[in-house]
Specification:
Number of strands of chain A: 6
Membrane topology (chain A): Peripheral membrane protein
Strand content of chain B: under 5%
Shape of chain B: flat
InterPro entries (chain A): NADH_UbQ_OxRdtase-like_20kDa, NADH_UQ_OxRdtase_20Kd_su
Largest interface: A-B, 22 and 15 residues
CATH topology of the domain at 38-159 and 174-178 in chain A: Rossmann fold
Number of helices of chain A: 6
Order of helices and strands of chain A: EEHEHEHEHEHH
Largest sheet of chain B: none
Helix content of chain A: 25-40%
Structural class of chain A: alpha/beta
Oligomer: heterodimer
Protein name (chain A): NADH-quinone oxidoreductase subunit B
CATH class of the domain at 38-159 and 174-178 in chain A: Alpha Beta
Binding site for [4Fe-4S] cluster (chain A): 46-47, 112, 141
Strand content of chain A: 5-15%
CATH architecture of the domain at 38-159 and 174-178 in chain A: 3-Layer(aba) Sandwich
Shape of chain A: globular
Number of domains of chain B: 1
Number of strands of chain B: 0
CATH architecture of chain B: Up-down Bundle
Distance between the termini of chain B: 53 Å
Subunit structure (chain A): NDH-1 is composed of 14 different subunits. Subunits NuoB, C, D, E, F, and G constitute the peripheral sector of the complex.
Distance between the termini of chain A: 54 Å
Largest sheet of chain A: 4 strands, parallel
Strand order of the largest sheet of chain A: 3-4-5-6
CATH topology of chain B: Methane Monooxygenase Hydroxylase, Chain G, domain 1
CATH superfamily of chain B: NADH:ubiquinone/plastoquinone oxidoreductase, chain 3
């Protein structure tokens, strides 16, 4: 089985013994959070359709812990903005992000959400990072499900490495203040 | 079979375990999780748009009536459970008593029917 393509997940650094494994709380919480991210699919256009196929059985985002989507911001971890956001829709996106419970991440899927895409016009918001802080950008028009999954895995890496104190720290407050969010 | 009071201990143990789990997870998540509040964040969630007013609107009384009638007749059925357990011991006396009980409730049910309370489309 030396050339098997199956690999075992790496354990975080810790002390191992007979029947126990001790690691830091941050690592444990990060691992739990990363493998159970519940997305809020803010699907607007064509990228939303690509996300639908990502949710379906062939590409299956449920493998990564995102089996249960949440359209309620209070119960979601990741805000996945997929599709063109017009300037009329922008306050809605901001309010939804505002009302998400901490810790929260934002995945911007597709060219329109990242930068306005092909629609360089008066009515389209030129990228959601003008209104909310974005963690991972997935380019593409639309990106293939594999690319969306890659972006989601990057969010998982961020969640794994994040310290449990980060959301209470002043740097985070400053980041949000720069967007006009308390 | 005669049940001693201590035979019901597993029920209380299960209740205590359920309560302990709830308390433990609430304490753990509230201490581990970030706590950030702001006025806009704590507003009622209405899919990103401003929520206007409160949700107090007049609701049709038929919902209340159906619910309350359910409670009444459900209690009646609950009373029939002890009768079912002690059926043989209560024999004919118990039967006539239950008949009176159910007869009184049946009169109430006829009243409900005649008054048209269960007509949903009015």
């Amino acid at each position: 089985m030396s050339n098997s393509t199956i690999s075992v997940a790496e354990a975080p650094p810790g002390i191992e013994g007979a029947g126990f494994f001790a690691t830091s709380l941050d690592n444990l919480v990060g691992l739990a959070r990363a493998n159970s991210l519940w997305p809020l699919p803010f699907a607007t256009s064509c990228c939303g359709i690509e996300f639908m196929s990502t949710m379906a059985s062939h590409y299956d985002i449920g493998r990564f812990g995102a089996e249960r989507l949440s359209f309620s911001a209070r119960q979601a971890d990741v805000l996945m903005v997929m599709g063109t956001i017009s300037k009329k829709m922008a306050p809605v996106v901001k309010q939804v992000y505002l009302q998400m419970a901490e810790p929260r991440w934002v995945l911007s899927v597709g060219a329109c959400a990242c930068s306005g895409g092909i629609f360089d016009t008066y009515s389209v918001l030129q990228g959601i990072d003008r209104i909310i802080p974005v963690d991972v950008y997935v380019p593409g028009c639309p990106p293939r499900p594999e690319q969306i999954l890659d972006g989601f895995m990057q969010i998982q890496e961020l969640a794994k490495k994040e310290s449990t104190r980060r959301r209470n720290e002043p740097e985070y407050k400053a980041l949000l203040a720069s967007y006009g969010i308390e | 079979m005669n049940y001693q009071p201590q035979d019901f201990l597993p029920i209380f143990v299960q209740l205590a375990a359920a309560l302990a789990f709830i308390v433990a997870t609430m304490v753990a998540t509230h201490s581990l999780g970030p706590k950030r509040h702001s006025k806009k964040k704590d507003d009622a969630f209405e899919c990103g748009i401003e929520s206007i007013g409160d949700a107090r609107t007049p609701i049709s009384v038929k919902y209340f009536l159906v619910a309350i009638l359910f409670v009444l007749f459900d209690i009646e059925i609950v009373f029939m459970y002890p009768w079912a357990v002690n059926f043989k011991q209560l024999s004919w006396t118990g039967f006539y008593e239950m008949l009176v009980f159910m007869g009184l409730l049946l009169v109430g049910f006829l009243y409900v029917l005649k008054k048209g309370i269960l007509k949903w489309e009015k």
